[in-house]
Design goal:
8 helices, single chain, 2 strands, 2 domains, Cytochrome Bc1 Complex, Chain D, domain 2, mainly alpha, two-stranded antiparallel ribbon
Amino acid sequence: MFIFNRLNRVFILLITLAFLTGFNAHNKTKSSSLNTKKTPDLGVQSNLDEINQLNITIFPDGKNLPKGNGSVEEGEVIFKMKCAACHGANGNGGIIKVPLVGGENTLHTKKPIKTVGSYWPYATTLFDYVRRTMPYNAPQTLTNDEVYALCAYLLNKNNIIKHDVVMNKKTLAEVKMPNSQGFINSYLTKRKNSKQKQEIK
């Protein structure tokens, strides 16, 4: 009985060691295989056309603005058809209670009204946002001409451009917004403060 139990234990020990050795070798092989791969094999690689379709960011200076143009009159028609249901007939808030027009001289009050005219620092951001997200029920369905026209209409309603000004990639980038100096570059401010502290030391 003693010999049997001893042999049994040796046998179990050998089986366990063989299992652990095989498991470790498997993991090393798997790890080596993963290390040689450049991707985790998730999804498929995007081609250039697909990337360009998503690369629609418009920069503050107007970089990446597309060709096209739109007038205030055209924008008013489009706004009534595709925007007024949510934003109100004159952009005064509508059912979502988020006004796009007005709010002058309210940012420093207890109840600031943040609109395109009173708050937004760049007119080019208006193009980016409208093209990317509007209309709410069908984003990215507006043509470039329609977006330019809506920009013209909203800028005119906020008394930023005259009624006869046509918006395009050149004129939109040239628009000076009332609150253009109301923002600071947090990154540059931190770098400046850090540099000043180092000079003091």
